[in-house]
Known about the structure:
Number of strands: 11
Shape: elongated
Order of helices and strands: EHEHEHEHHEHHHEHHEEHHHHHEHHEEHH
Mean pLDDT: 96
Radius of gyration: 26 Å
Structural class: alpha/beta
Number of helices: 19
Strand content: 5-15%
Amino acid sequence: xxxxxxxxAGVRVIDITAVMMGPWATQMLADxxxxxxxxxxxxxxxxxxxxxxxxxxxxxxFLGANRNKRSIVLDLKAPEGVEALLRLVExxxxxxYNVRPAAMKRLGLTYERLAEVNPRLIYVGLxxxxxxxxxxxxxxxxxxxQSAMGLPNIVAAHTGQEPRYVPFNLADRSVGLYAFxxxxxxLYARTQTGQGQRIDVPMFETMVPAILGDHLYGKRFDxxxxxxxxxxxxxxxxxxxxxxxxxxxxLIYHEHHWTAFLEVIGKSEMMKTDPRLASIATRMENxxxxxxxxxxxxxxxxxxxxxxxxxxxxxxxxxxHTFDSLLEDPHLRDIExxxxxxxxxxxxxxxxxxxSEWHGTPPGGYMPAPSLGQHSAELLKGVGYSEAEVxxxxxxxxxxxxx
Length: 403
């Protein structure tokens, strides 16, 4: 193993999470130098089987959330598997899991037991709901949390169509990002106290303030000063604008944006004559009709023409990417954000760079997402198991991987 570098070098994370939310959080830790040990059941993380190369247990979703980690297989339903995990915990800084706490209790892996083994351990659970309320035992997936936070109905209000989910794992990735910040904060707190702690990161309670931050709106006050829902975001005309040849996003929001836009289209007098443009309040009240007005103007020229005109007028503008055009984005090419790395099992794979740019302790090195149990023997030997004991664990299916 190449010693990791970066701001989290020296931090060891025992990662018992699977699917997306937890692995996304721990990949960010791994990207910044933490030694993340992915503990998997004998069948592995279920995302290994999703999509192309699933038959090789290295599907694209798995590859995109598990780089820079080491994989060990442990059957935690067997006492010997739990014993091996406890040995790993002795030298760890963080343990993350995303099964319900009741399942961790059945496995004998409560915070209280692990804190006896390692009082400095930061024990982080990522699950659906706070354990203090009636939903505590409920399972949770991204679609379910989107529903619980009301997002499909907001999409329906915006589009005038039936409720729909946002077509990417919004809750999983958002809560994973929040969990990354929580873990980093807990590591800092431990430098002050010397003690570990248990932290719960529930999806529902993380996402509710995110959506209400925009949409509580008039009900932010008591008594209410209007209805919930931010009109600018809910406007049915708030969408990419159709040009003569494609679509474009442009933000005509502040007064100086409107002044500049009207000058570009030769209708400067509207700033004085159109009551809809009198203030930000009147623009919010008339957001639908103003968006429709802009849409009518933008339909008359090509996307490239509008980009040139609006950039010159200092109006925010950007083309609407497709998956393919995003991969060819010239800015991302400039900064070498995309790269191809060779995976020893599946061959060349497409990777994205660490998005933050560090000028003092930059992360370095790269390990492709591991094959199932790739590091089992290495890690077991590292916590004191002999060659014979490792061979026995592998032979009995308590662990698996190359000897």
